Automatic annotation (TrEMBL):
Record's catalysed reaction(s): 6-carboxyhexanoyl-[ACP] + L-alanine + H(+) = (8S)-8-amino-7-oxononanoate + holo-[ACP] + CO2
Highest taxon above the source species: Bacteria
PANTHER family: CLASS II AMINOTRANSFERASE/8-AMINO-7-OXONONANOATE SYNTHASE (PTHR13693), LD36009P (PTHR13693:SF3)
Keyword Transferase recorded: yes
Organism: Streptomyces galilaeus
InterPro entries cross-referenced by the UniProt entry: Aminotrans_II_pyridoxalP_BS, Aminotransferase_I/II_large, AON_synthase_class-II, PyrdxlP-dep_Trfase, PyrdxlP-dep_Trfase_major, PyrdxlP-dep_Trfase_small
GO molecular function: transaminase activity
Name of the protein this chain belongs to: 8-amino-7-oxononanoate synthase
Record-stated family: Belongs to the class-II pyridoxal-phosphate-dependent aminotransferase family.
Swiss-Prot/TrEMBL keywords: Aminotransferase, Pyridoxal phosphate, Transferase
EC number: 2.3.1.47
Residue ranges crossing the lipid bilayer per the database entry: none
């Protein structure tokens, strides 16, 4: 077994602690100078970052609108830090709530076109809290094969029966829904924009299936918010906000902060507020983070051209890559995935790009098939994007040519 495959192996010891000593894959990669994780970056995060005193073009961030260093976002965060202190040291359910959290909820609900919203500490905790509350072991939940890990974890926590349908395949969804017993409760769970592929959910077809089979629908719009429909996200993009029951979002991407939220009907949000365990038993997102997210939301609302700019930058890169003969998966979002023939090529190409001054994210099974995930910001300059295309075009493993189609890897 290669060190790369072994990264996802946990061993099967009866002594729980022996799994720590038998896990050698990460150390093997470190020894081979191919370890790509936990890279310490220095200073701020924008279109460029600093590493070991060098400047790298950042193409591995979810800072789509480039707002993490925006003066208005920073000023709001500083002012909240002064007014509210560094932490609320408790859950929103008890001592951790502030007027700022509630202001953010009201503005998010309005922006997303839903009657109410509930702010939680991260996007991950939002999905865990919502799915762990809405579903019970009697229910069936049907997930897209590429749904984010936090969605699956929330479903597992609930004990509901988990079923999958092939990625973005409405007919596959129909076949899966058809097999669910008539008397069972059912929820369909999709991402608005898939985080690895960068493709947009076929929401009109999903909505049609949900309505035909009496299923409720949850949409995780972590990567759609700030990007599609001038920022309002995937449901607004298709004009289907009313047909989606629950929309979850994160603040850690376009909103340049940390936290998450769910938007839906007054009744649903009221229920979640009093039952979601990841909300009730975990400290609230800091006022500093809430203030940064609120400032970013207000900027997005006032300047929808930010969303247009990131889309234009991604389209520019996609065109450049295609002209240079670099393979990329179809996408109409700021996420541009570059498949590699195998995991070893993912790591060696990641390393060469880093050496050439371009930061990208390596993706390895079981997260997804081997690839480099690149993503773009509204604040990248065309000159920076030209340099990225040039660096990618110099990588053999990324080029459109025989032998680079990739060995098929089955993804858990
Ligand atoms: C689709 C999706 N949902 C949820 C999350 C979790 O968000 P957070 O980083 O706020 O925990 C992510 C982040 O990677 C994501 O990509």
């Amino acid at each position: 077994m290669s060190a790369i495959q072994a990264l996802s192996q946990r061993g099967n010891p009866t002594d729980l602690y022996s799994r720590f000593s038998s896990f050698t894959a990460a150390r093997d990669l470190m020894a081979a100078d191919l370890y790509p994780f936990f890279l310490p970056l220095e200073g701020g995060e924008g279109p460029t970052v600093r590493r070991d005193g060098r400047t790298l073009i950042m193409c591995g961030s979810n800072n789509y609108l480039g707002l993490t260093g925006h003066p208005e976002v920073l000023a709001a965060a500083r002012s909240a830090l002064d007014r509210y202190g560094s932490s609320r040291t408790g859950s929103r359910f008890l001592n951790g709530n502030t007027d700022l959290h509630q202001e953010l909820e009201a503005e998010l609900a309005d922006y997303l076109g839903k009657p109410a919203a509930l702010v939680m500490s991260t996007g991950y905790q939002t999905n865990l809290g919502v799915l762990g509350t809405v579903l019970t072991p009697r229910d069936y939940v049907v997930l897209d094969r590429s749904a984010h890990a936090s969605l699956l974890d929330g479903c597992r926590l609930s004990g509901a029966k988990v079923r999958w349908f092939p990625h973005n395949d409405p007919e596959g969804l129909r076949r899966t829904l058809e097999r669910i017993p008539d008397e069972a409760g059912r929820l369909v769970v999709v991402d608005g924009v898939y985080s690895m592929e960068g493709d947009v959910c076929d929401l009109p077809a999903v909505v049609k299936m949900c309505s035909a089979y009496g299923a409720r629908l949850l949409l995780d719009d972590a990567h759609g918010l700030g990007v599609l429909a001038e920022g309002r996200g995937t449901a607004a993009h298709f004009g289907l906000t009313d047909e989606v029951d629950l929309i979850t979002v994160t603040f850690s991407k376009s909103l340049a902060s940390l936290g998450g939220a769910v938007a839906g009907s007054e009744e649903a949000i009221h229920y979640l507020r009093h039952h979601a365990r990841s909300l009730m038993f975990s400290a609230s997102t800091t006022p500093t983070n809430a203030a940064a997210a609120l400032a970013a939301l207000r900027l997005l609302r006032a300047r929808p051209e930010l969303a247009t700019a990131v889309q234009a930058n991604a389209a520019y890169v996609r065109r450049g890559l295609a002209e240079a003969g670099v393979r990329s998966t179809p996408s109409s979002t700021p996420i541009v995935s570059l498949p590699t023939p195998g995991a070893l090529e993912t790591l060696t190409t990641w390393q060469r790009l880093l050496h050439d001054g371009v930061y990208v994210n390596p993706v390895l099974p079981p997260a997804a098939e081997p690839r480099l995930r690149t993503s773009y910001m509204a604040s990248h300059t065309l000159d920076q994007l030209d340099r990225v295309v040039e660096a990618c075009a110099a990588q053999d493993a990324l080029l459109e040519r025989p032998g680079n189609e990739g060995r098929s890897v089955s993804v858990a």
